[in-house]
Amino acid sequence: MKVLHIEAGRHLYGGALQVVFLLRGLRAAGVDSVLACPPGSAIAPAAAAHATVHELAMGGDLDLGLVGRLRRLIRAERPDLVHLHSRRGSDVLGALAARLEGVPVVLSRRVDNPEPRAWVALKYRLHDRIVTISEGIRRVLRAEGVPEAKLVCVPSAVDTTAYAPIAADHPDRAAVRAELGLAPDTLLLVMAAQFIARKGHRTLLAALPGVLARHPRARVLLLGRGPLHEAIVAEARAAGLHGALPDGGPVLFPGFRDDLPRLLPACDLMVHPAEMEGLGVALLQAAACGLPIVAGRAGGIPEIVRPGLNGELIEPGDAAALAQHLTNLLGDPALRARYGAAGRQLVLDEFSVDAMVDGNLAVYRACVGAAPG
After folding, report:
1. pLDDT of 275-327, one tens digit each?
2. Which residues, at least 6 apart from 98, have a Cβ–Cβ distance to it below 8 Å?
3. Euclidean distance between CA atoms 78 and 82, whole angstroms
4. Which domains are delineated in the chain?
5. Which InterPro entries would you find in this protein's record (predicted)?
């Protein structure tokens, strides 16, 4: 079996990282993979060991020329199936190219934002199967009228070798704090998310004064980039949460970090008060590292964060509940340890790379009616 994968993202995190995991697993299973991605994207070198990589211009939803470029690639590579991994034009234009060339097409759906029903009826007619990364996303699509027979849930995965807990006396714990200008005994919270409205940064800022009143040693890392970054920095500064203390303030903005496997296990707790979320790869990574999690009850998040087992959930926007859960967990090291161990086991049991690869491979076989080879 040969599969053409199309990934329009330029950075190696989230969905693009899942594609690399999938390509690696498919290669081990005997499947030939071809990847189409934008020139200069980070996924190209990461995927080169597992797939034939073609860098194509991908200009988004209005880049109608992408249809022709993909049709030429399909004719050259002659794949048995096309798997679309991202929106940004490829979900529709890539599907059109595959349809025009008579090749089955699968779409991975990674977000839970609703779409107009009329558009849903047209768009998803192009795809033979839609792979959702959470049951929450599958519910949204089902409610919008996508036929149940087209929907398959295959959860995202985390590399539990790269993301793993460290001991309390591990040198990285003190080293991370030293690099950030923090004291060794700092209670370190982390949020790793794009700076966009639905991720809930403002809910966290609203909750922090109450948390800091009880735990003045607590500090928060807001990792990532995005259009609201400067606005959130300004709001944190106006609230006296950024830049007011000698160590840089209770809220730090280190930007995008590519060393999460080292950084996350050196933290004490992850917070993610999102209002919408397909699943949340950063939550899987944090759980794999043994961190308890406090997050929003949105999208696929409850499939990862299970109250009383490995974390707590709040209703989106409930800053008071967020403050209460954070305060309780920061004050209870034993509870943090119990939640962290349970989260690690949950990831091992339900979100492994092998399970994700097997799930997608089963979808391919159903679409083409043939085993790999």
Report:
1. 999 888 899 999 999 999 999 999 899 999 999 999 999 999 999 999 999 99
2. 70, 74, 82, 104, 105
3. 10
4. 2-157+352-368 (3.40.50.2000), 171-350 (3.40.50.2000)
5. Glyco_trans_1, Glyco_trans_4-like_N, Glycosyltransferase_grp1
Is the separation of the CB atoms in 14 and 194 below 8 Å?
Answer: no
Contact between residue 292 and residue 340 where contact means Cβ atoms under 8 Å apart = yes
Q: Determine the 3-state secondary structure of 190 from DSSP.
A: strand
How far from 78 is each of 6, 60, 81, 312, CA to CA, in Å? Answer: 14, 24, 9, 48
- Report the 10 Å Cβ neighbour count for 234: 11
Long-range contacts of 280-286 (CB under 8 A, 24+ apart): 280/304, 281/13, 281/14, 281/17, 281/18, 281/156, 281/158, 282/192, 282/193, 284/156, 284/157, 284/158, 284/347, 284/351, 285/158, 285/163, 285/192, 285/260, 285/261, 286/190, 286/192, 286/343
Give residues with Cβ within 8 angstroms of 45, minimum separation 6: none
Q: What are the residues whose beta carbons fall under 8 Å from the beta carbon of 124, sequence distance 6 or more?
A: 107, 130, 141, 146, 150
Measured distance CA(346)–CA(225) in Å, rounded: 29
Strands (E), 180-230: 187-192, 218-223
Q: What is the pTM of this model?
A: 0.80
Q: Give pLDDT tens digits for 145-183.
A: 999 999 999 999 999 999 999 998 999 999 999 999 899
- Rounded Cα gap, residues 363 and 365, in angstroms: 5
Helices (H) and strands (E) in the chain, counts: 14, 13
Residues 6+ apart with CB under 8 A from 127: 84, 95, 105, 106, 107, 150
Angle at 281 between CA 258 and CA 371, to 5 degrees: 110
Contact 90, 6 (CB under 8 A): yes
Partner residues linked to 293 by β-bridges: 270, 311
